[in-house]
Amino acid sequence: MDLESIADELYGLPPTDFIGARTRHAAAARTAGDRDLAGKIGALRRPTLSAWASNLLVRGEPDAVVGLLRLGEGLREAHQELDRKQLRELSGQQHRLTAALARQARQLAADAGHPVSEEVQREVELTLHAVLADPQAAQEWAVGHLVKPLTPPVGFPAAAVSGTPQRAAGSPSPRSGRPAGRDDRDTAKSPDRSAKDQRREAERMKKLTQARQAAETAGQQAHQREDELRQAESERDQAERQLHEAEERATALAQEVKAAQEHQREARSALDQARHRATDAARTARTARGGAQAAHARAERLEADEK
């Protein structure tokens, strides 16, 4: 196996299993004579719980991953052009989506047999905000080999609504949804400049539309996963109730079986005693019959002698 395949395997394991598996792979590489690979394997760091949960999300929800990456790309490209209203709208979509995906990551961890805390879930959500804000973070996350949670940059609207694009010094505040820095001088632009601005605006609107569509798609997928989560939790609760009822029935039946076994032992003991008494009575009866027969014989002999 190459380093990439080994890393894929290791970062899919719970953190508690990481060190042992890494040691085995490094030892196998050394045995095969590949000391360089063994050294690289040994340098792989064990992930934190939140990094592991984030890696599970990448592996378990590929459609949501694609939607989040597209949304982040559109947001980053449109960020400098958006007005405050648009930022608030998209920021709300981002927070809903990242919160839903963080909950899904927590459920995936529980399904893998290692439940995580709300604090870990919050770290996953911060990682997802970083993915939206930073293309390098997005690329690192999408590989599925995180070793620690990512931190979103300050000022990006995914991390805070206060991340409204900054205006140049002395420029007027945006009005009526117009981007900052545009004023009445637009009327003095040349036709070529105006056409260029129109193309730029059209491209900006296209990217904004794509970002909104990506957010909507990813949000729908997240809602679907939440519905599936609620259904799974309902089925789990029902199964737990059924198990509890079955255990209660098993306990009652076990008590009944125990009582029946005790009754059986008592009946067997009574039968044994009755058999002993019957044997003793039969022996006594035989003795009595023998005595009676002997007495009868003596009486007959006496009668014969008298005659």
Overall description:
- With 307 residues, the chain is mainly alpha-helical.
- The chain has a domain at 3-43.
- The protein contains nine helices and no strands.
- Helix 5 runs antiparallel to helix 9 and helix 7 crosses helix 8 (135-143).
- The model is unreliable at 158-190 (pLDDT under 50).
Topology:
Elements: H1 3-10, H2 15-31, H3 35-43, H4 49-60, H5 62-78, H6 84-111, H7 118-133, H8 135-143, H9 191-306
Helix pairs in contact: 2-3, 4-6, 4-7, 5-7, 5-9, 6-7, 6-9, 7-8
Biased composition (Basic and acidic residues): 180-206, 223-250, 259-280, 297-307
Region (Disordered): 157-307
Biased composition (Low complexity): 281-296
Portion in beta strands: under 5%
Cα distance spanning the termini: 123 Å
Give the overall average pLDDT: 79
The sequence of SSEs as H and E is HHHHHHHHH
Shape: elongated
Q: Summarize the biggest pleated sheet.
A: none
- Secondary structure class reads mainly alpha
Give the total of beta strands: 0
User: Helix content range of the residues, please?
Assistant: over 70%
What is the count of DSSP helices, taking H or I runs of 4+ residues? 9
Features of this protein?
307 residues; mainly alpha; 9 helices; 76% helix
